């Protein structure tokens, strides 16, 4: 029996990182849809604070260099690109509060924020590319959900940056009002520091009471999310 050998290029396509480009937007344009917006959200997983969505229509002649999934960028680089995006693109931002999240669920609240961001664009989108598995219901245009979209489409990547920077800034301001939880450091995620603050001071009005460990019963649908984006 011959010994087993490894292939020449093991897991080649799993190890090569995705780099967002403009191909999906150009494909939609070729099909007669223009302009094309990218949409994404930030803040599905935290125990506190809103979920923030952004919609972005990039100018093909002025696409900022270095757009990528916001999670792949440093905080400083996100801030730099945030300024560039706002200066060169059409941008809209919307959010759903912790109260809204508790009244519905995180998925519905996220999609509703994304829908409002898209519908509020100063230039109406003819087509929308959204990150993930869902296109928000209630849009005035068709759309396409793109798995790992923030790593495949520069428009979605731009939206992910805008949403992330906006939410981080909101949580930094929240820290001034509720300094006992460390929101400026963890932006609402379930870190040890955050959980210790909840243990000592109880939840505040920004906490999502439908999320474990904040909810007091196991009744109702599961709304837990990962503790990191």
UniProtKB/TrEMBL annotation:
Its EC number is 3.1.26.4. The keyword NAD does not apply. Keywords: Cytoplasm, Endonuclease, Hydrolase, Manganese, Metal-binding, Nuclease. It is found in: Cytoplasm. Manganese or magnesium. Binds 1 divalent metal ion per monomer in the absence of substrate. May bind a second metal ion after substrate binding. PROSITE patterns: RNASE_H_2. Residues 210-229 are annotated as: Disordered. GO terms for molecular function: manganese ion binding; RNA binding; RNA-DNA hybrid ribonuclease activity. It is an enzyme of class 3 (hydrolase). Residues 220-229 have a biased composition (Acidic residues). GO terms for biological process: DNA replication, removal of RNA primer; mismatch repair. A divalent metal cation binds at residues 40-41, 131. Its main location: cytoplasm. Its cofactor is Mg(2+); Mn(2+). It catalyses: Endonucleolytic cleavage to 5'-phosphomonoester. One of its GO terms (cellular component) is cytoplasm. Residues 34-223 form the RNase H type-2 domain. Gene3D superfamilies: Ribonuclease H-like superfamily/Ribonuclease H (3.30.420.10). Endonuclease that specifically degrades the RNA of RNA-DNA hybrids. Belongs to the RNase HII family. This is Ribonuclease HII. The gene is rnhB.
